[in-house]
Amino acid sequence: MADSVQTDLSIGDIVSLATQFQGFDMSTNMFSGMEPTNSKYVNDTWYEICDTANWRKMMTRVNQGLSPYENEDEDITRGVAGAGTATKSADGTTSAADSSSDSSAETSAETDYSGTVEVLNGAGVEGLAGRVAATLDNQGFDTTAATADSYDYSKTRIIYVGDANKAKAQAVADTLGLSNLAADDGTYAGAADVVVILGSDMANN
What we know:
The protein is α/β, with parallel strands linked by helices. It has 6 helices and 9 strands. The strands form 3 sheets. It has a 5-stranded mixed beta sheet. The chain has a two-stranded antiparallel sheet with strand order 1-2.
């Protein structure tokens, strides 16, 4: 599709966006919607005319960070592309409507998108820890970025400091598209709820 796209974004901007969207959950983080219209038949042609009042109501929700619809049943685009529609309410809760009739979907591990996360650059790539920290900030974590004890890490490590923070580490892993979690052996006690040591595998993603 590159030949069909024009942009003033730099390569650095594009890479930064790609990093932020890594681990993006389409079922709960992506909202879909269609401009509300009224159909009208004029001179042998059907026209879809914007329903301005409902459009303004929809965009008021979007501008507040909510999904376009108060109720998922209002979304006529639901299931068009075979995906669910996320519906976020004013109290901040998000529900996902799955267009599939299969009720045997596996339940993911417990997650908690809160708490403190320290992101350490163990790959030596300039700005990497800051970009990953920004991604986690966007998900609700209180995140800081710093440098690891070396730049020799090949695999990214996600370490939860205390068993009570395992759900937070799982949420971090889900956000970053990773699966490897480890309990702290005492090395990072008091540093943060979760410590992420970025390896070269993350730098290459």
